[in-house]
Design a protein that fits this description.
Distance between the termini: 46 Å
Number of helices: 14
Oligomer: single chain
Number of domains: 1
Radius of gyration: 20 Å
Strand content: under 5%
Number of strands: 0
Structural class: mainly alpha
């Protein structure tokens, strides 16, 4: 009897801790993305081919799974849903191209911190496009995020470490463009996900993004072949790890913990990426950059908490 009680208690703890462990693994895996991109760039692969191959490989891995599990849904899907999926894929293509390009110009810490500001842009779009009102905590978080971003820009323009990178200001602007494009991807996805399953949606979005990036690569005259084995290994790891395993872990956890907790947990990505860059590439932090980095993440956390409280209050009023 005691052994059965111990077993049942261990099983309950496992079910309770499971989503958090999966989420922690997902954040850890996604944190390696900027490192793998830097490795591929170090092997001479331009940003467009990296982005194109990342999404092409991810879509290719998903294809047999989609045809087995969602083929009937694909046959029934309407033109509006396909058009929205292609639009979402367009935003995703811009996001990956601009963010990957930013890593060639600025530090891993600045790039990953700025590209995770998409909650700010989603919040602003909700106000300007959908007429929603931001909660007080969300507004404060947005202001903190803007202040942190400004500090990172100021640091990268004036810090002696800026000379190490090709063009930190351009890199930071590209990272912000990546955040804005990711926000478009999320907003279109939010409108579409009520009518299309997750698996079908991400396959259509990844596939259309890959097609657009392949066309852009061909138009630019850049090649997809002729790189080193290390470069291809890094890009394959990028597709299988951060793109598929990492984001699948987030989607799995979303069914078991709150969306707010998942959003806040994802803030661990720039922290993990910055630490990996510190140990692997020796990229340290300037004081002003570190202050902006901390303020930016705190602002996103505060904004997410404000949204959670606003949603809870709205639910109680109903």
């Amino acid at each position: 009897m005691p052994s059965a009680l111990c077993y049942n208690g261990a099983m309950r703890r496992s079910r309770t801790l499971g989503p958090y462990l999966v989420l922690a693994c997902g954040v850890t895996i996604v944190s390696t993305a900027s490192i793998l991109i830097r490795i591929a760039q170090g092997e001479g692969v331009p940003s467009l081919p990296i982005a194109a191959l990342r999404l092409l490989l991810a879509a290719s891995v998903l294809t047999p799974v989609v045809w087995v599990r969602s083929s009937q849904e694909l046959l029934r899907i309407g033109r509006r849903e396909i058009s929205l999926s292609v639009l979402s894929g367009g935003f995703l293509a811009v996001h990956f191209w601009s963010w990957i390009a930013s890593l060639g110009y600025t530090s891993v810490a600045s790039s990953t911190a700025l590209v995770t500001t998409n909650p700010l842009w989603v919040g602003l779009a909700s106000v300007l496009i959908f007429g929603e009102r931001l909660a007080t905590g969300t507004t404060a978080g947005v202001l903190m995020t803007l202040a942190g971003s400004a500090m990172i820009f100021a640091s990268d323009r004036s810090s002696p470490t800026a000379a190490v990178h090709a063009d930190p200001v351009l890199g930071n602007l590209l990272a912000l463009l990546g955040a804005v494009a990711a926000s478009g991807y999320l907003l279109v996805g939010r409108a579409l996900r009520g009518r299309v399953s997750l698996l079908t949606y991400i396959w259509l979005a990844y596939g259309s993004a890959a097609a657009l990036l392949l066309l852009a690569t061909a138009a630019s005259g850049q090649a997809l072949t002729g790189y080193s084995s290390l470069a291809y290994a890094a890009m394959l790891a990028l597709a299988l790890g951060p793109q598929l395993l990492g984001h699948t872990a987030f989607n799995w956890a979303l069914r078991r913990v709150s969306a707010t907790f998942v959003a806040v947990s994802i803030l661990g990505e720039p922290v993990g990426s910055a630490l990996l860059a510190l140990f692997i590439f020796g990229e340290g932090f300037a004081p002003l950059q570190l202050g902006g980095f901390t303020l930016l993440l705190a602002g996103i956390f505060l904004a997410a908490r404000g949204e959670r409280h606003a949603a809870a209050s709205a639910a109680q009023e109903r």
